[in-house]
């Protein structure tokens, strides 16, 4: 018998059913808490499911929302505003994934790998909820980030009572969740281990490594030795420790050991599974987190049923506990779960906030306006220009920088190029590319590109980013188009030191208008600065693995090596001079 109690949230009384046991088809039971109004009448239910612990989510009842850089911000409190959900007359179901929190069973690997499919467990939980007397049989899902990814995994299983989902800030291509352009990103470590502003997964000893289960000890030892040959990995204490002691966090060990894309990531990739989704899907993402914007667009284009894509404004991180987007979410569920014709489906499917102009652009597709890809060339003296360099390399000497490993310096060297001030509002919407001709003296480095909007008073805002590990420079020529490069990341090809290579870096999708007097500034480095206007808004672990060896870089930008940005200018306005 469930423990049923009542709690007060301001003037609101909430009925709480604690530690309900939910049977899975293989006999394992999951634990869930249910928050609802005190009446006995059945209601639609919104299901949240993650490994972060249902008890942590209950802080939404007592903790005011925290915005980064608040030290109380915790990236794992993502199941939504419980009191608001109950006030809107839904049952809020918050469950612990298999092997986490109070649930039974063992969790194998990351949420894309091994064991019982997480979508299968979500299916069983949703169908159980629909049968309960406090539910009217109409079920949606709620929650951002991991909770958002779980919604897609669940919907792909097609549980009959799941009527719609509302996904905010999910992670979809799981290779790109951890390796941006082949460069390891540390935020997934934070989510798993509980470092840098995250409580982490609520696992004890019930999460196991798929790699350790699949391969012999000899094969695992061989793979570990190969990873430790990477100077970037060998210079990072946390990774050295993990590779020697995988039980420290076995899911993170699996990801570190799989630095290339392939079947291990693709078999449970929600982008691949989305073609099986036929229920209505609302996708919401804010600008400033490029890979998640990219993933939402890719997912939107894969879905076949009723769908919406909303790209919101900067800054990149929502509050924790998560309270944003609830107004639109409840309009969505009022329509699909309660049958109220509130007009939400009358608007165009794509809704994009444009930074700078602060205009909202709507359309039936992404990008929401016609665009023309135009180049901005890297020129001498840090200039970006619409015209190419006419001199050859013998006269247009390359720019360059030397970066020492961050084990011996705390200074990150950055090259930058700037347009002249724009004379009229200039709008860009879409993805882009940086074509950079670079010579290095090592077999590998990172290529990190960041674009900024810089106001006349010097204030600047990040517009988009791009990452590429030099050894991952190979392009899929069939999938690559102008302004939209595609790297398969299925093998690493070391760079020949001293050779000039063209690196085509994907710039994640963005939407921005550069106002008169503003400049577009692009920065190039192989490591990220330790702190700046953008990084201060992210969790402390939301950075990329630094290069572990000293590297000298020469950037050629001459008539034979036309280093340039290729950007999506809307056809309404002129490009920069």
UniProtKB/TrEMBL annotation:
Give this protein's Gene Ontology molecular function annotations: dipeptidyl-peptidase activity
The source's domain of life comes to Bacteria
Pfam families assigned: Peptidase_S15, PepX_C
Q: Does the keyword Acetylation apply?
A: no
Write out the coiled-coil annotation as residue ranges. none
User: Do you know which SUPFAM superfamilies this protein is assigned to?
Assistant: alpha/beta-Hydrolases (SSF53474), Galactose-binding domain-like (SSF49785)
Q: Which Gene3D superfamilies match?
A: alpha-amino acid ester hydrolase ( Helical cap domain), alpha/beta hydrolase, Galactose-binding domain-like
What keywords sit in the KW lines? Hydrolase
InterPro entries to which the protein is assigned, alphabetical? AB_hydrolase_fold, CocE/Ser_esterase, Galactose-bd-like_sf, Xaa-Pro-like_dom, Xaa-Pro_dipept_C, Xaa-Pro_dipeptidyl-ppase/CocE
Q: List, for all copies, the residue spans of the domain called Xaa-Pro dipeptidyl-peptidase C-terminal.
A: 330-566
Question: Which NCBIfam families does this entry report, sorted A to Z?
Answer: CocE_NonD
Q: What is this protein called?
A: Xaa-Pro dipeptidyl-peptidase C-terminal domain-containing protein
């Amino acid at each position: 018998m469930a423990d049923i109690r009542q709690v007060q949230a301001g003037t609101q009384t909430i009925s709480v059913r604690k530690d309900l046991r939910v049977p899975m088809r293989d006999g394992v039971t999951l634990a869930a808490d249910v928050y609802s109004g005190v009446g006995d009448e059945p209601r639609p239910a919104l299901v949240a499911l993650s490994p972060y612990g249902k008890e942590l989510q209950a802080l939404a009842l007592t903790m005011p929302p925290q915005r980064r850089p608040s030290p109380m911000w915790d990236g794992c409190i993502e199941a939504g505003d419980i009191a608001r959900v109950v006030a809107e007359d839904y049952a809020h179901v918050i469950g612990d994934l298999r092997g986490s929190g109070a649930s039974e069973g063992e969790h194998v690997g990351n949420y894309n790998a091994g064991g019982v499919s997480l979508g299968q467990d979500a299916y069983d939980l949703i169908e159980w909820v629909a049968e309960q007397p406090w539910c009217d049989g109409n079920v949606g899902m709620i929650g951002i980030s991991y909770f958002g990814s779980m919604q897609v995994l669940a919907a792909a299983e097609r549980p009959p009572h799941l009527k719609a989902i509302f996904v905010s800030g999910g992670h979809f291509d799981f290779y790109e969740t951890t390796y941006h352009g082949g460069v390891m990103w540390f935020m997934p470590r934070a989510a798993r281990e509980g470092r840098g502003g995250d409580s982490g997964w609520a696992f004890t000893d019930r999460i196991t490594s798929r790699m350790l289960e699949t391969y012999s000890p000899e094969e695992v030892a061989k793979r570990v030795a190969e990873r430790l040959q990477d100077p970037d990995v060998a210079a990072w204490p946390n990774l050295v420790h993990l590779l020697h002691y995988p039980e420290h966090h076995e899911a993170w060990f699996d990801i570190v050991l799989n630095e290339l894309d392939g079947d291990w990531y693709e078999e449970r990739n929600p982008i691949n599974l989305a073609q099986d989704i036929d229920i209505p899907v609302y996708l919401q993402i804010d600008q400033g987190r490029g890979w998640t914007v990219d993933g939402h667009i890719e997912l939107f284009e894969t879905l076949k049923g009723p769908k919406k894509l909303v790209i919101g404004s900067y800054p990149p991180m929502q509050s924790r506990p998560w309270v944003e987007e609830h107004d639109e979410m409840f309009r969505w569920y009022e329509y699909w779960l309660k049958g109220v014709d509130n007009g939400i489906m009358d608007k165009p499917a794509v809704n994009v906030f444009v930074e700078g102009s602060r205009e909202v652009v709507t359309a039936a597709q992404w990008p929401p306006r016609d665009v023309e890809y135009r180049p901005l060339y890297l020129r001498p003296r840090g200039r970006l220009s619409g015209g190419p360099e006419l001199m050859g390399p013998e006269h247009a000497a390359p720019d360059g920088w030397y970066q020492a490993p961050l084990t011996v310096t705390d200074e990150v060297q950055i090259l930058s190029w700037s347009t002249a001030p724009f004379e009229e509002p200039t709008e860009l919407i879409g993805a882009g590319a940086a074509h950079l001709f670079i010579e290095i003296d090592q077999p590998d480095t990172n290529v990190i590109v960041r674009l900024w909007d810089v106001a006349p008073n010097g204030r600047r805002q990040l517009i988009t980013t791009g990452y590429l590990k030099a050894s991952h420079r190979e392009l899929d020529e069939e999938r690559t188009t102008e302004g939209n490069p595609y790297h398969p990341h299925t093998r690493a090809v070391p760079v020949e030191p001293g050779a000039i290579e063209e690196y085509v870096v994907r710039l994640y999708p963005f939407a921005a208008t550069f106002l008169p007097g503003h400049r577009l500034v692009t920065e190039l480095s192989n490591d990220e600065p330790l702190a700046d206007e953008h990084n201060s808004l992210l969790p402390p672990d939301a950075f990329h693995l630094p290069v572990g060896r000293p590297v000298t870089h020469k950037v050629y930008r001459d008539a034979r090596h036309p280093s340039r940005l290729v950007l999506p200018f809307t056809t309404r306005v002129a490009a920069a001079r």
